[in-house]
Protein 1
Amino acid sequence: MSVFEANLREIAKQSPELAAALRAAQGGRLEIRPAKSGYPTGFAQGRAIHSTYDPVKESISWATAQIVSCREGDVVLVFGIGLLYHVEALCKVLPPSIRIVVAVPDLVELHDACAVRAWGDWARRVTWVWGVPHSMARRTMELGSSVRFMTYVPAARLHPDAHAAIEESVRRSIAHAAGGQLRIAVVGPIYGGSLPVTRSVVTALESLGHHVDWIDHSAHATSYHALARLEDARHRQVMQNKFAEFLSQLTLVRIAERPPDLVLAMAQAPMTLSVLEHVRKKHFLTAMWFVENYRHLTYWQQMAAGFDFWFVIQKGACLDAFRHAGAKEIHYLPVAADLAAHKTVSLTSDEMEEFGADVSFVGAGYANRREILPQLITPEWRLKVWGNEWDGATAIEPVLQRGGVRIDTETCIKVFNATTVNLNLHSHTGKGLDPEADFVNPRTFELAACGAFQLVDHRSLLGELFTQEEMATFQTFEELPQRIRAALHEADIRRAMARAAFDRVVREHTYQHRMKELLTQVGMAQPDRVGTILKGEREAAQLSRRCVDHQELVPLLKNFSVTQRVELEQVAERIRHRGPTATLSREELLVLMLDEYRAQTRDLI
Amino acid sequence: MASLIVQLARLGDLLQTLPAITSLTARYAGERFDLLCASTLTDIVSLFHGTARAVPWEADQWQQWALGWTNSPDSTMTAAQDHIHQLAAQTYDTVYNLNQHPRAILAAHLLGRRVVGPGSAGPLYENLPPWGTYLRKVARDRSANHVHLADAFCGLCGVMPPGRVPRITPHASDLPGSLEKVGDPRYHWVAVIIGAGDLARCLPPAIWARWITALLNAHTAIRVVLIGSSGEIGRSRAIQETLSPLLWGRVWDATGHTNLLQLALLLSRCHWTIGSDTGSLHLAAAVGCRTLGLYFARARVHETGPYGDQHRVWQSSTFAPDTWPIDESLDFIVAQTSVPQLTECTGWQLWEGHVDEWGMSYSRPGQSNVSVDDRMAVWKHCMSMDDRENVLL
């Protein structure tokens, strides 16, 4: 029997369909040459997939480095096939309690792997998943919910898109299944654009069942702005910095009073690097959702190493820049819509008259808007501009509403609902359209959530959030008048697109979706700390089940309701409540001792 | 019978436990005494007379277990149980606990049948024994402390102070490189402790450079040894860079070059040790080196002055002094006059140590034993009725 047939027989024991598919497939993805050690090694696209000296030794080193964070019951999903030396090594170093799953995005490559060398008993331990990403993810999740990804980069780089799709699908499945309650401290800014996003984040997390402690610094905005009235610029700077430092300390105290599982800071939240360092030393997980353009607000460069996780609204160069600045974990997470805040409303005829227009724009008077919007003033349609910071923009005055005062969210929603064509022009401090048009602003999602039709300037990241059937865009200023004109005359198309955009938002782009995504990323990177909570493994009933060798602990846990999340702190507190004359068992003394060290390690102040 | 003494605090407190160990072993002759201390300090306990074994307490390991408990409570409990069993296969008959924090109280109850000192009424009983109350009051009110901390440790154990100065004898372990020359009898050796565990107690490098310059200029036989941890190498460099190059040949830099046993040996070869770090001063005192303490910030002479006769301490009246008693110290360090000529300078007062049957006390030079009545009153107030009958009467 050939090596290929022998290996195929092993696969067939587990998956006859995969074996049949492999038999029908043709090989040829990999070029096989002998390594210096004599073992065969593989090449693809001119690059070696395994060591050209000793692929076995190299794979053992790789596997040993990978398994450090694994624990019993995990399911390891391996990306990258090659000649499977790395999978063989994993089988050797991982205990049997850990399942090993190999994703097969390409039958041709696995066909090559089958034909080159005889597999040993290790192959029986491997579960193969193949097909479309969704089914691979589902099959993996069936084996266990504690999934760890292991990427053997030299081989995985042949199919990056397929692996990303599987990973995404697994993450979504885990997020969907997550039900445990986290304690999350959300640190908001003093003022600014990230403040309403913070509100939405808090609401979304609460709606997902988590306990949220909103450290709301907007209460201090009046004092902060009062400092701006100091005449000497140096005094102003010094006092505002000291005020921000004070608020940073206040954040620390708030975190100390109600220790969270995760500190989620929003962009512009007052947290100094020294406070962050202190929080991290005490083993608190920290994350920042930087809902700002990283090119304009650059303080992240000093803070990059301070947070455990960064979430940003841009990709590509942005992710690289954060990594170079010292960010350990960086993920793309676009903004979204808050369906409770932005919604379709019915308006009276008076309101339609006041807030309605053929074309409206809501926003602050950035340079590009000051240049573009006056050129859209024409008798052909009725244009209204709403918002503040338009001082000195005389050309816009004829259409500027309420003298350019800031309007609240309720008014915005009325404008969006009453307008035929809502213009969404991303801000830019120069002239014309933003030349580095990548991220998508919150307005895009807000308009869609209101069921309003919008014309938005093209953004490179828009395509993966909305299709062309859901969102009307323009690439240049020159084409804008024509696009407005067309939209005004095509009511059916307008309504269909607005409806489609609304449906897409409800389906995929709410802050609940984003928070699930964020927590899943954190949970997968920290399966022992956050992942277990999300999976409900810290609930009293689950903990009791795991105390098989320490039945003495079970009575302690029985004091809690079965679904109540129980931490060491709570168990210790119950013991202390028994009063000063209580006689304690050895286990109880140990619990108290452990809690003393928990407090010493975790207590911030 | 086997007993355990629990002292989980830092080096200074561990060395201040020596009088209690001396008194306990004298009173309970033939009984075995082990000492539970931070695992980083067990080497120094090997030099103590009277203790059979240093039992290492691994605080880092407990922290790891504390963080991992919820993920795997069963395996964490098993590991912690095994650890306690390894520390003491059999429970001690009596545990003398010298620390008031819950970790020490819990450790005492985990390891022993009977607890003496804080926690004696039970692990959750918050009321302290009289000596514990006394120490807490002194610490909280910053009030006059007539009984030295080391003697209060004796009181916590239910024994009187030993009435003499307990010493430790360093092993003749190898000193690194050029430090072997320290102790050359042709010279008068002064150890300078350049740092302190508490940043507020650190003298600026420029001030140390002034001290060292004054010492070296006062007599050609003076040699200075800089003492510090590996984290204080930068301070040492800063001090040396400020010194005149002409003085460099008379300064030995031991900063970051010694472990605890080597440091004990090094200090035993010096005539004087000067510094503001109480832990190192206690070590110097324990190996028989005279000490000059510079006490400011939270350090107080009556509480933690080095244990023994003839040690001197300058006590600052301010938290962060801006003048330093340098010239005022030269006569007794360099000229070795038995009675200091100057006992005060702006913001500072000089105190001198004495040991008697009531333990250690510090008084102004020439005014010894003024606090005997005060100390006796504290002892009578704090000793329990049983202890009073056994010890005092």
Protein 2
Amino acid sequence: MTVSNAWLLEASDSLSIAISDAEMVEYVQVPVSFTVPGAPNYCNQILYWQSHLVPVMDLGRLLGFSADEEGSLLSLIAYQTQPGTALQYMALKLKVAPRKIQVDDKQACELPEAISEGLLSSLCLSCFTHENRSVLILDIASLCSAKYRDQVNESKSDSFKTVITAE
Amino acid sequence: MAAQSFAQIKFDGVSLLIPQTEVGIIEVSSSIGAEVLAEGSIGTVKSGNRDWPVFALGADFQLRPERPETYKFCLCMNLDNKEVLSIACEEVSTTMLDDKDDLKPVPDCMRITDCPIEFLTLRDHQMMLISNTKTMLQYLVAPEAIEA
């Protein structure tokens, strides 16, 4: 049995994801972010952090839930587009503070049907159960890619909403 | 980058920089004529035999059908020395950008296909958006207009 450390991130009431220790950079409680006109509504804020302009992703809004305008918690996440390349950064809007958890192989589960049939499925690397909830492990680099942005643009927001409320 | 001069315009909370070399003239909004030369424009600035269709934009770069009262100036922009468009705005000033300004491209996940913003930079706790006349023309006017 392999036990791994992970960070549990609650991106919305209905969506939890997990990232590794290596991916978690910082937890930001009161971020100073700026609006970028014309950007997709789920990713129209940018955070200035250590000389980097870091896009802020609101997965709840991406999935069609009502926007949480009060939310001011971010998790700063590092990723690479290819092994050996420079670290890139993105920030994920959170409902609550991240929690460190331990995950073992026995917790692995199938993707919820609603997820596997939706656009998020292309980002899901795996899934496990924690406290009776499905937790997704996402390909962060793909989430931040132009390809995924285009995929979202082409999709209907209604289909996203269907996906998650079915959990 | 070598130091470069930009016209800085402000409208609806947006601070947009356009290369100074692409600026034709700056006019007051009272000089906007009613003639509509381009779809989506709110009128035309005329100077001699030159015409600039005027566009009014909102905070999300959406076209406004009318000029808000606070938009008191028009930045008239040229492409290859030909007048192409004008943007109505609240303020116009000049600023210099250089290596210290550390221009960043718009991240892939934020860039929509017709986004007119080329680069971003932060100065004095304010996000500045950097574009140019060709990109604004592509965004505001039919692409074939560029070839005209």
Protein 3
Amino acid sequence: MFEIIEHTADIGLRIEAETAEEFFADAGRGFASLLVENPETVGSREAVHIDIQADDLASLLHDWLSELLFVYSTRGLVLVQFDVKLDGARLKAIAYGELFNPIKHQRYQDIKAVTYHTLKVERLAGLWRGQVIIDI
Amino acid sequence: MAHIPIEKLSETTWRIPRDARPGMLVDGIVFADEKIMAALAKDEALEQVANVACLPGIRKASLAMPDIHWGYGFCIGGVCATDPAEGGVVSPGGVGYDINCGVRLLRTDLAHGDVKPHMTALMETLFATIPAGVGQGGRYHFSDAEMRRILENGPRALPGGALGEHDLEVTESGGCIEGADASVVSERAFARGRGQCGTLGAGNHFLEVQVVDQVINPAAAEALGLYKGQVCVMIHSGSRGFGHQVCEDALHELRGFQERFGYKLPDLQLACAPINSPEGERYLGSMRAAANFAWCNRQLLMAQAREAFEKVFGQSWSRLGLEMIYDVAHNIAKFERHKVEGGERELLVHRKGATRAFPAGHPEIPEIYREIGQPVLIPGDMGRASWVLIGSQGAMEQSFGTTCHGAGRALSRHAAMKHANSSEVLRDLVERGIVARSHTRKGLCEEQPAAYKDVDDVVNVVHEANLSRKVARMRPIGVIKG
């Protein structure tokens, strides 16, 4: 699960899940809900393969969402469904979504970047928890 | 939030002493009045002023302007100057993601009465002509070779027709910071920037048609070609996805910077590298490329605005007097000469939501304004006002030639939505005589006047502190938002 957190000039996501795979998939869904107001209307017509590696899990969360932003801002693809596999701090995923369509989808935020501000990922009592602030 | 000790030095100046936090190399100085200072107790902006005071090679003080609010690493409204000869660093966070976000002001020969009957048509035409909104592409598409020329040369590399005869003369740095290096810019930045030059974007970016409603300094206003009742056009935008990616790439490259350079800084978002290091030089080369891209963006936005005025009024833009008054950057790092202990030094001045404000006589001011001082453009919110100021000597003495950049947000976007819905916001704007067009009702709602501090309060502080002096105030009559 994810929730949106408020910041005076910006916005963030808090994510909590039982497994690492769910954690990153939830982060991806949370991110989609910042791109479009009605992510439930976005279909899974196209698939994108993502393969990224980082030095630690917090950086990996940052890079994962940055990758989704890059796909959106260069190809117009809103990705909403995720098959994630995690091996240490290497993430392989197939992400599904469709081209943004102004008739069907409602834009939400103009996202500039995923920041490192208060970025964290931790495992506590069998739960994966994390938070990330997005510059809008 | 930990309490930061702060002492009042004057009605407009406050000091965070250097011993307030371990690691601070200089004091923090905040320009604010009592009201602004009281509001700051709620967030971590003062903590960030103290954190920036820990940056290696920082000179004199870590500064914050009265539009200060919480940012990433640096607060918004933050200014710091680092000395390359003293191991000074460059910090991408001291510039921000939207490199060379800035403001451009155009004058016209039209009076409010001339445009009033045409306001709806004018705003519809501007709205149809100027690409705005999230991810909205534009009509200009540049090849990689063209992009490289733009990145290294700024608007002078733009195709004919987009550039008026006097535009570059009245653009900060002539629209081009030397030393831009397109070869260090990533393919990702090219990919994000391609097709976005000449587009407004969303968020707080805007194009406004404004009317001069107060002239405070008639001599300076006359020198700028401004008079009461005159129609002006203000454009606020930056380097779009291109600049965001340049910043992102630099922060990525600086991962592990503390261990690499032996720094001990309190916040990872203060990632930095010595100015004289391969990482520092690469960032500066790409940051300058993004700055030049941003000047091209505002140039093309202005070209499209001029076109819209031509369509509506049936005359050429030059006959309508749509000449540029000035263009300022408010997210940038530049080498400048400043007096510090030990004489005049070349320092790297980071301005993160802060505007250069050089006084009369400074060699970097265009000749036509050299006697009055550099024009400073301060956008407010879409309902109240924006300001033109001029730089003053006090800025050279106190703030590395810098003043504020805007009103600063007071409410989060969510709180703004709760404060008034889009129909209420539109009704309020109509009552104020403002024609507003936005691609999303939500965008309009989030940017409503109540979401911002009153720009008049912010401008009063910089005027009283002698960081810059008031010239004229404009109120909006037409607004375009993404």
Protein 4
Amino acid sequence: MTAQTIKIWDFDGGVHPEENKHQSTGQPIAVANSPEFVVVPLNQHLGSPAKPIVKVGDKVKTGQVIAQADGFVSAPTHASITGIVTEIAEYQVPHASGLTSLCIKIENQGEDEWELLPALDLNSSDEALINRIKEAGLAGLGGAGFPTNIKYLTKDTIETLIINGAECEPYITADDMLMRERAKQVIDGTRIAQKILNAKEVLIGIEDNKPEAIAAIQKAVADSGEQTISVRVIPTKYPSGGEKQLIQILTGKQVPAGGLPSSLGIVCQNVGTVAAVAEAVLEGKPLVSRVVTLTGEALGTQCNLDVRLGTPISNLLQQVKVNQKKLDRLIMGGPMMGFTLPDANLPVIKTTNCILAPTKKELPPGNLFNACIRCGICEQVCPADLLPQQLYWYSKSKNWEQLELNSLSDCIECGACAYVCPSQIPLVQYYRFAKGEIRKEQAEHEKSDNARIRFEARQERLAQEAAEKEAKRKARAEAAAKAKAAKSGAEGSAKPEISDSVKEAIARAKAKKAVTDSASTSNAPALTKEQLEAKWQNAVAKAEKAEARLNDAKENDDPMAVALEKSLAKLKEKALLAKEQLDNFQEPPDKAEPAKVVLTKEQLEAKLKAAQAKLEKTQAKFVEANENNDPMAEALEKSLAKLREKVEAAKAQLDSFNESDSKETQS
Amino acid sequence: MTTVIIAIAVLFVLALAFGALLGFADIRFKPEGNPIVDQIDGILPQTQCGQCGHPGCRPYAEAIANGTDPINQCPPGGESTIQALADLLDVEPLPLAAEHGVEKPTSVAVIREDECIGCTKCIQACPIDAILGAAKQMHTVIESECTGCDLCVEPCPVDCIDMVPVEDTLQTWHWEKPNDGYQLIATDKGRITAESVNDSKTEKDSDEGDKAA
């Protein structure tokens, strides 16, 4: 290959930290000791966790599905050893948060029985291949853990497939060793990926600090006879292994902010991932193991191990003879982008590419950071062409708006800015904090929008229900009135009851007015006792009603309460006045006597009848009001009681009349 | 003289024409409702909890827009909402009014289902219909919809509703803001050593000393 003639681009910024790769490349990849048990987390990938499909006590074989993918962005999980499921529970997982997640614990049974999928080959259909990649639980092994099959489902036309063998982060050599020892597998996987994506060319980008890997891959490409695959040797610079950076180096194209490489017709895959694709397709092996670099001066042997997923890290440390006294901390990933593990018993997962066990001298803990001196070096090394300093200020002051304007979302969190910062400011942690807060705020905003919609929908529903109830009540009242009218019509009176009663009421009111008018003008004793009594009762009833309304209003904090109180006072006065009048009237009994005498038996009977009719009517109304939970029900009940009294009184009168009648006849 | 008159006449006619245009635009393109109310409503957390003394977030937004209520009566929104409202309305941010409650961590209502008697009282109390159930049937809260407004707790006759703070999951967790630099690895989580604890202690002490002074 003539690397000189092939054009290679460069990206802005970048740093050259000490590589520290030679320590772990001295030995071939060894197979890790079989662990006593594995703890397999169900969300080793990005997206929703897988759903367990095994029970405690089940015997599982290596490669058997133990948890099914749940949703589109998800991946199934497989048993990584042969044994018995002893627990399905929350375990701490290797994550920067130190949080727990659902895991399946499998106790090793000694033998290693595999459950393989049927092997496929390059001639299989794209659909079958993609399906196999999903079934095998493949997720990006470079570090992000994005379910691999989704990359192959892109709707864009893919011109270029880029295989990422840059491995730019210091200390990590897992991909390097994989390319050296399993170059054929890498190329097989690459050809499968190329076939699925229908890519015209394949570029394998490898940093020039891995000459053995380059040679091995070039040989494998030559052996495969594939003309469209070419190896591109790129200069060593951190972070050339970043997806966007590698694309820029190899093609000169920049992935637009917020866009995906597929929009440029490019798909990028890690060498580890394509090797796993080859295993899954050609051998039917699901993803149950991966190559992990064990490095750092606290380890007796620094090497790469082929590790079953879910193996506790402490097992690996034992195998490579860790010196606990020298060990300062454990880091998953590299020194630039990795995070400190809270515990050595955490399991290896699909994205664990390196376990770094440095001594205190090797990676000394940082000092308290100093103030930003605005030197601007961070801005020169930023591979994403951002302004780290500005982002720092805005993150510190929680100015999310400015952060979005300054494209915080384009930050790849490579740590180059923090690496060069002379004040040792943990810049990336600030950015991660700000990104998290912005995400949280967006989620909250979405939720509150949702809540608003639900609240408004509920209000609408309640209003509708109330309106329906009102309409029903009205309809029922009308129906009742009609029924009454029909009844009375049958009895002989043609006019409907309601208008009658209204007319009566109007006539009564008019009469009353005339009476009071005449009373006020001539002090006339025109009012009979009955009239006065009626007036008093009326006033009392009105006052009672007003009082009920006032109480109601007070309960509801109605501004009407004051006005109601006033009118109540007035009504009470009126009632008192009426009572006085009534009492005064009773004094001259001679005048009242003839009025009494005037009532004939027929009249009394008529009165009783009328009272009874009224009682019935009110009762019907009351029942209806009760059914509808009408607030009027109480008032109706009261008037019902009163009417009953009236009826009794009328009956008594009639009886007494009858008695006197009989007496008269007797005498 | 005539030029002056002509000039005045022309200006008058122009003024009339533009006045008419403005008047027409005012009527034709009148915004429906009060747009500031929508903006305020968009900032409020929509818990519909009524802690501000209004029956829902929108009435409070209207009260703020009318200038009848201050911006610091929303405990669920807390500091960030007050800050956002202050920015929007260009007023000074105020501390949260204590009589309306205190800012609590986000929580969701959880019904202890075996104790639920199926009285539907909580269902009627929920402002966003986030409780499922029927009379004499067990009720349950749709956790993803619950805003943690507390309104269902009080009506429950058997006290079987708990407000449970929402805990971080792997999906929602994010890095904290670094408080002091004890990281070499840029992305390292704040590891506290004896030294840093001492340092921050002495800093705190001196701060408190300053305040006391």
